[in-house]
Amino acid sequence: MNTSIKFSKMSGAGNDFIVFDNMHKDIHLSADNIRSLCTRRTGIGADGLILIEPSARFDFAMKYYNADGLPGSMCGNGGRCAVYFAWTIGACGTTTAFEANGNRYDAWVCDNEAIRLKMILPHDFRDEFGSNGLSCNFVNTGSPHTIIFTDELDTFDVESTGRLIRNDSKLFPEGTNVNFLQVTSPESLKVRTYERGVEAETLACGTGAVAAALMSYKLGKIASRSVSVSVRSGDILTIDFSEDMQDVYLSGPATIVYTGSIQM
C-alpha cells in the first residue's frame, strides 16, 4: 500500500535538496528511491536528499545522500539547510549542535535568515600537482576538493574538464569535487564547482567555497580571512576563518522553496 510522505524542497545558495523529517525513524528509502526522487524532470529533482533524524548526543542528526542515491560526505550547504529545516520543525533552537558522518557541527540561525555553520578542521592540503594538463591544489573540508585557478571562469568548460579530473583514479581513487575559481579582489572570489555524486556542475557548493577560500589564502592570492564567494546561482557565501584555519565558518542563505508530499 502506498504511503504519503511529506517533504520540503530547499535551496542553499542554489544547491537544492529534498528534506524529510525523520525524527520518528519511520521513513525508509532505498538508493533507487533516492536516485528517482533526485532525478530532474521525472522526480522532484535535487542535488541531494537529507533525512533529519534523532541523535543520542546532539539536537539532531543529518543523513545526507547524493543524487546518485549513495551516502555522501559532508555537504556544507546541505548542513545549513538541515539546520534551518530542523529549526522550523522545533528540533533545535537558533543555536544548535548536530551530527553528520560521525562529526559534531555547530550552527546558528541568524537574524537575516542566513545560517552560519562551523566546519570541521580542513586537512590533506596538497599544493601544485598536475591533472589533465592543469595545475591543481587540493584540500579536504569535509569533502575532497580539487582547486584550479583561472582568469576565464565565465567561459571555462567546467563540465568536461571537471568530469575528467573527478575521474582521475590515479590521483583520486575515491573521486574528487573540482572547483574552478577566479580571484576578483583581495577579499572575494568567484567559484564554479563540478560535484562528485551529482556528476555535473551545481549552482553552489558549500564545502567547495570553503576549500576555495582557504586555499586562496594559503597561497597568498587573497589577503582577507573573511571572504565573499560568488557562486553560480549568483548568491554569496561568506567564509570566515582564523589565521591557523582551526576555526572555519560557512554562512549564507538557506530557504524552503516549497513543501509537498509523495507516494512511496
TrEMBL record:
Top enzyme class, one word, equals isomerase
Q: A cellular component term (GO) from this record?
A: cytosol
Q: Which GO terms describe its molecular function?
A: diaminopimelate epimerase activity
Active site feature = C75 (proton donor), C205 (proton acceptor)
Q: Please verify whether the record's keywords include Cytoplasm.
A: yes
Spell out the reaction equation it catalyses.
Answer: (2S,6S)-2,6-diaminopimelate = meso-2,6-diaminopimelate
For this UniProt record, the keywords arranged alphabetically read as follows: Amino-acid biosynthesis, Cytoplasm, Isomerase, Lysine biosynthesis
The pathway noted for it is: Amino-acid biosynthesis; L-lysine biosynthesis via DAP pathway; DL-2,6-diaminopimelate from LL-2,6-diaminopimelate: step 1/1
User: Predominant location of this chain?
Assistant: cytoplasm
Q: Where in the cell is it found?
A: Cytoplasm
Positions marked as site (Could be important to modulate the pK values of the two catalytic cysteine residues): H145, E195
Its EC number is 5.1.1.7
Listed under GO biological process in this entry are: lysine biosynthetic process via diaminopimelate
- Per UniProt, where does substrate bind? N15, N66, G76, N77, N177, E195, R196, G206, T207
Q: Name one Pfam family in it.
A: DAP_epimerase
The answer, when asked if Cytoplasm is one of the entry's keywords, is yes
The Swiss-Prot or TrEMBL record describes its family as follows:
Belongs to the diaminopimelate epimerase family.
* Oligomeric and partner information: Homodimer.
The free-text function statement in the UniProt record for this protein reads: Catalyzes the stereoinversion of LL-2,6-diaminopimelate (L,L-DAP) to meso-diaminopimelate (meso-DAP), a precursor of L-lysine and an essential component of the bacterial peptidoglycan.
Q: What is the name of this protein?
A: Diaminopimelate epimerase
Q: What organism is the protein native to?
A: Prosthecochloris aestuarii (strain DSM 271 / SK 413)
Name of the gene this protein is made from = dapF
